[in-house]
# Entry
Amino acid sequence: MAFTKKQKGDMTAQYENWLGESQALFVLEYVGLTMKEVDALRAKAREAGSEVHLVKNTLFSRALQNRGYTVPEFLEGTSLVGFAFNDPPALAKVFTDFIKGNETRKVKGGFLGKDLISDTQVKALADLPPLPVMRATLLGVISAPASKLVRTLAEPARSLAAVVKAYSEKAPVAA
# Structure
């Protein structure tokens, strides 16, 4: 299908917009996928706060260059690109789960920020815990010293209160 020059310019502008908004992007080879499978992948990506789009490689390469990215070698053949707007590990997990058990599908690589990453790095990124779990872990690490300090400061008073209570229960009441 031939596109007009205006349509190509609009597509390139849209690609640039997605590149500007995304924290990461991952490229999937989609040879032999049915539309139902692509729609299922898109739905899972939306749940992760991301989007998946079929791109024209030439126009997408032009958008990458305009945004200051290096054009990767793997951007050949059929490319389905996922744009991670919120949580890059979540989209990487969606992609790696999608390719499991099917040899015709493969993650070609991607970008984390503007840094080029390989398919193995995408898989390593998918192994990271989700963002809420990472935040909870970080909060626990940060709050642990403070809670330990509070326990340490409160312990002498608690010990003194226990001693006073023991003496009050032990002493006979004077009539």
